[in-house]
Specification:
Five copies of one chain form a homopentamer. By secondary structure, the first copy, chain A, is an all-beta fold. Chain A has strands at residues 2-11, 23-29, 41-45, 54-59, 76-81, 84-87, 90-94.
Chain lengths: 96, 96, 96, 96, 96
């Protein structure tokens, strides 16, 4: 899984019919302190994650192992909202 | 999923028989403003996406979760045409 | 598989129901001497690996081939704790 | 899929029994003009592609969605030989 | 598949039960001349490959398409030992 920050939203009228009603959010991977790096990617949100929140995303076929994503053409899903991260015993990120 | 811009087309006479009639487009990944970066890749188009449009592509086995791509040797599919993208509440891309 | 060092922990209240009770650890890939490099990623721990230990992680659908991870939206699992690594006949890492 | 150029061949006496008779070619990814970049990789050829030809390769489990590769330990397959590529309406590659 | 050189071995007492008796080797990807580059990774050996030999590795779910690796949490397998490699008609690597 990747640690990532939710940064935005996508709107699509024309899409695969099985994606109807699925929320597709824009994310960027972050380090353990929640600071984003790298290029944006898009994942299905199954947990009502909010903009600015830190989450975990699962990729590939693993992104389809939820009720909302199964058998659908999506390759990334938000499967956890992060409360806090600790590295070597020290808290590096704490949800506000 | 990746945000990508449709930039071109491929034509192949010799191909796997199950790909007959599938449209294979050339794309480049973009940032949230629709500006492409990186190297081209190819995805199956199931939505009649046009050259220059911004789309989302799903990869790996997820690329086969559509009627047009199932059980076929393809690893990327266009599963949504993007109307607009918003980052931190601001529109970063708007389809013309 | 990747050689990786366990560096931290994640806590999430809001998550996919099937992840209840799964331990999600933060890791960084290492070289054969156990020195980490690159960005952190998260894997399910099925072996009670400790912070600082060197492990192997399997990714993608292979990360779901354990009793603890099957059919769940996770794409990486710790499937071995490393005792030692040898390169060209020389021990490059030894568990303390 | 990746656009790639066939650059060479591999010969292996010792291999998984299910690979008997499969042709494993060496490729390098190319840009839309057919100029290779990056490191070599190996894919199964199901189309009698020739050295120097431009092809498309499908990866991961998608590489196993042909009669010749199914249920075999191969993660890339040549599934189309490219006749020509067009970008923004201009031909960037034409098979000789 | 990747062209890779076997460079070392891993020993693990604590591991997924289904990995009992599987040999996990350390490899580095190589170019067509057999010179390694990049970071080490680990694959299951099903062919008694020796240290220093050049092999092909299949990744992801394809790494599980052998009797020794099926249904196990492993994402890379050695599926061929390379005798020789040719690029543009010239031998670039020959097994000793």
């Amino acid at each position: 899984m990747l640690i990532a920050k939710v940064i935005g939203t996508t709107v699509s009228t024309i899409k695969e019919p099985t994606l109807e009603g699925r929320k597709l959010l824009i994310l960027r991977q972050t380090d353990v302190d929640g600071v984003p790096f790298g290029k944006p990617y898009v994942a299905v949100d199954t947990l009502d994650a909010g903009i600015g929140e830190l989450v975990l995303t699962a990729h590939g076929s693993s992104g389809r192992q939820t009720e909302i994503t199964q058998n659908r053409p999506v390759d990334a899903v938000i499967m956890a909202v992060i409360d806090h991260l600790s590295v070597l015993g020290e808290v590096t990120y704490q949800k506000e």
